[in-house]
Amino acid sequence: MQYQVFIQNQAERQFMASIVGMPAITGEGTTEEEALAKASAALQAQLATGKLVTIQVGTPNQPNESVNQDDPWLKHQGLFADDPTFEDFLLEVAAYRQQLDAEAEAET
């Protein structure tokens, strides 16, 4: 993997290399190369105990899709939000269920 590193001249013959986006991982040295090597070693040590992952954070108008991956039914949420006949469909389903319940009760 490739990482961006910010190298800064701190003082006379003193350099600081910081991994961009990971401010706690740095390396200091008397040359840019030394600082870069130390930052690289610090990053490797950090990655040895964990890993980097990518997440997606939703906005208030767009739900967080990473949460929806846990429940396969949630990907269909809102599918019929703009369907003007959906309410009629739900009423028909409810009526059919009531009919089946009444028939099952009559048989017992």
Question: In words, what does this structure look like?
Answer:
- With 108 residues, the chain is an alpha+beta fold.
- The chain folds into two domains: 5-48, no CATH class; 65-107.
- The protein is 40% helix and 19% strand.
- It has helices at residues 32-48, 65-68, 86-107; strands at residues 5-11, 14-19, 22-29.
- The protein has a three-stranded antiparallel sheet.
- The longest helix has 22 residues, at 86-107.
- The radius of gyration is 29 Å and the shape is rod-shaped.
- The model has no long low-confidence stretch (mean pLDDT 86).
- Going by helix content, strand content and strand pairing, the class is alpha+beta
Order of helices and strands: EEEHHH
Numbering strands along the chain, what is their spatial order in the largest sheet? 1-2-3
Distance between the termini: 68 Å
Low-confidence stretches at least 5 residues in length (pLDDT < 50)?
none
| Largest sheet composition | 3 strands, antiparallel
Q: Which band does the percent of strand residues land in?
A: 15-25%
Number of domains: 2
Strand count:
3
Overall outline: rod-shaped
- Structure annotation, total helices: 3
Helix residue percentage: 25-40%
Secondary-structure map:
Layout: E1 5-11, E2 14-19, E3 22-29, H1 32-48, H2 65-68, H3 86-107
Antiparallel strand pairs: 1-2, 2-3
Task: Offer a quick outline of the entry.
The chain has 108 residues and is of the alpha+beta class. It is 40% helix and 19% strand. It contains three helices and three strands; from the N terminus they run βββααα.
